[in-house]
Amino acid sequence: MKPIKTFIVTPSLPEKLTRLKDLAYNLRWSWSHETVDLFRWLDSDLWERSGHNPVVLLGTIEQSKLEAAAGDDGFLAQLNRVATELDDYMTAKSTWFAHNYNGTEAPVIAYFSAEFGVTECLSIFAGGLGMLAGDHLKSASDLGLPLVGVGLLYQQGYFRQYLNEAGWQQEAYEDNDFYNLPIELVRDEKGDSIVVKVPHPGREVCAQIWRAQVGRVPLYLLDTNHPANSPEDRDITDQLYGGNEELRIRQEMVLGIGGYRALKALGLSPTVFHMNEGHSAFLALERTRRYMEAHHFSFSEAREAALAGLVFTTHTPVAAGQDYFPLSLIERYLGDYFNALGLSRQEFMALGRKDPNDPSEPFCMTVLALKMAVYSNAVSRLHGEVSREMWQGLYPGVPKEEIPITHITNGIHYQSWLSHEMKILYDRFLGPRWREELADQEIWKRAERIAGEELWRTHEIRRERLVAFARNRLREQLKRRGASQAAVQDADEVLDPEILTIGFARRFATYKRATLILKDPDRLERILNDSERPVQIIFAGKAHPKDDPGKELIRRVIEMARQPRFRNRIVFLEDYDMSIARYLVQGCDIWLNTPLRLREASGTSGMKAAANAVLNLSILDGWWDEGYTPEIGWAIGRRESYQDPEYQDQVEAEALYGLLESEIVPMFYSRGTGGLPREWINRMKASIQVLCPFFNTHRMVAEYAERFYLPVSEHSRKFTSEGMQRAIALANWKSRVQDGWPQVCVLHVIVKGSGGIRVGDEIVVEAQVQSRELAPEDIAVELYMGPVDGEGNILQPTLVPMELADRISESEYVYRAATVASGQSGLFGCTVRVLPSHPDLVSHFLPGLITWA
């Protein structure tokens, strides 16, 4: 039976406790131990049962407990301290951004992502991408960056995982009760919810807007479960990454197009739009369409104005991981945009294709984002190399190392992932500035001062807590499966709080090779059950609902864990979430990571472990490829590549076992004075000093601000001021250059002095360039010079701008460059290239516009 009217019931808080609501509805509590302690004080068991949700806790707690808290002077004093701290935080004028950019016209940055992992009770994330997005918002808040988040509010979120008796993953979906989450419906002045409409075939889909306050940063979330929609459309935002391609394209239209419209409806006019992965790339089309509609621009003119403010981050290092849509779906759902943008079907489809002329190529959201963004980046140094190679086809003729995809390495939000004990330790030995100045290497050098006894005892406490937590979770898992009472009681004997503990927790995809350490069960048994130096492993993670090979990996782990020889040494924790992640990254001794190299873009779980002084043991992939040094952890292999995957697994499993047997286990159990593993503790300190200053989101977000957001904001303002004349001019220039480029060629190259050049000699290179339709100011001519390898390729090139030296005719010019040959001997070579040149170009590499001698 449907209700005639609905109304919202809110907690009945005593007057003295009203500030608890303010604390509950600002997600800053998710990185404030002091605030969480307040909620735990009210009812610790209910806090756990609520899924760490303060809104549920305040709405269901017994009134007598609230009255008791209202009469407790100690509680009230702590409440006042925490509430005052929140007020001071929200109104602070001394943030990083204010300090460094006071007087700068502040940008408004809109950060779009399909998932946000801010806290476990707001289940709108699946894994690393979402946690990274959540940490991005938190650091933006701490730094005072003027940023807003835009995402989707999923009715069921990501699935809850449980295993059947055979160890096979099952999925359960639970509805989120939005009115019992720390979010609020955004309303207009009349009190009505603000609704935006997203075009769909033959109709418009309504989406209402919710706000989650993440410290100083608002996160706006769109929800299509609205009465004006059909039942089918109300289900668009049901599940994260659920359904088929058709549901996915509809979700991405709501995110990109609806998200853009939501910001307009809220009265926000961002100067920068950051697309975190390609899911939101349709916003680029909507932004272009709006410029065309408002200013009567052509598509090319509006596109220049639109892309001036667009930033794109790719997180996926494999082609299969990109979003591709069949052309029939694009035509069905985006067909109206063909006409709105003034494009033919072929021209529109070309926006999402590597090869614009291939009619069979599907539409790729990453390609669309790369073509529409002024800056694009990968998420680690190695991922940058992989991405430039992957997308080289978009820039024919451009050397791989110059493809305009840079990198900004991921980080983590330390306050969210550090244990309370480690925060106290850092406060004592590093000083309080570490919380705000995470990138200051001098502060982290003080980790050497941390007393070894205190660091080790702190870590032992956390390992003990992890083992207790794991036993409790295992008991719950066994009860749910209907296990015998004896089996449930046996869970109390699983794991040992005093022995070397390895953690492996992440998405169970085949390339992550969760079972690599299980490759040789007999050898593993000898390592785990050594009578004097035992080892244990805790696994956690989910496989995608449609990934049966990933589910098979979980089943294999469960099968091994049930064998009598491994029963007390291997544990799998079901339903991996942020809460389990915190226990693991804080309590393990070793964080294990075994992906196939070049398949992991960055990874952040190892950074979370490192922040807690847990040592990493990993393949040299993602972030570890640039973070690893021998004194801070261990590398499996030395960046080798193999053609045979089975042979690679065998070799790297052997390397993994060898490290455990010869280095890791002996070092852990080598105890000196006071029973302390001195060498291990030294590695913990070294890991803190080397990794903590760099692999954090304060550094990462500041890098985005300085390299992308602020320059892009200024670029965007220039292009959208004065009637957008610069955008119009650049579009017209590009069109002219595109038409004239086939007539550009390098006729001759002369190297003066090439007969007998010695180290340090100057050489002069002249190039005769023909440019029939384009003037010298339209082009840049460069000398490209470097050592030549055995295959005749120029390596590590030096680029030298060539100056216009002579005009032979109206269309032929001589360019000259003088440079030092080299600082070393050997075979060297050079060539000359011509590129488009315009003062408003951010990148000189325009697709198809490069001419080599």
Fold blueprint:
Elements: H1 19-24, H2 33-42, H3 44-49, H4 54-60, H5 63-70, H6 73-91, H7 96-101, E1 109-112, H8 128-143, E2 147-152, E3 160-163, E4 169-172, E5 184-185, E6 195-200, E7 203-214, E8 217-223, H9 231-234, H10 245-265, E9 272-276, H11 282-295, H12 299-307, E10 310-313, E11 324-325, H13 327-340, H14 345-350, E12 363-364, H15 365-372, E13 375-378, H16 381-390, E14 406-407, H17 414-417, H18 420-430, H19 441-445, H20 452-480, H21 485-490, E15 500-505, H22 521-528, E16 535-540, H23 548-562, E17 570-573, H24 578-587, E18 590-593, H25 605-611, E19 615-619, H26 622-627, E20 634-636, H27 645-669, H28 678-691, H29 697-720, H30 725-740, E21 744-752, E22 762-771, E23 779-787, E24 798-801, E25 803-807, E26 812-820, E27 828-836, E28 851-852
Parallel strand pairs: 1-2, 1-9, 2-8, 9-10, 10-13, 13-14, 15-16, 15-18, 16-17, 18-19, 19-20
Antiparallel strand pairs: 3-4, 5-7, 6-7, 7-8, 11-12, 21-22, 22-26, 23-24, 23-27, 25-26, 27-28
Helix pairs in contact: 2-6, 8-29, 10-11, 11-12, 12-30, 20-24, 24-25
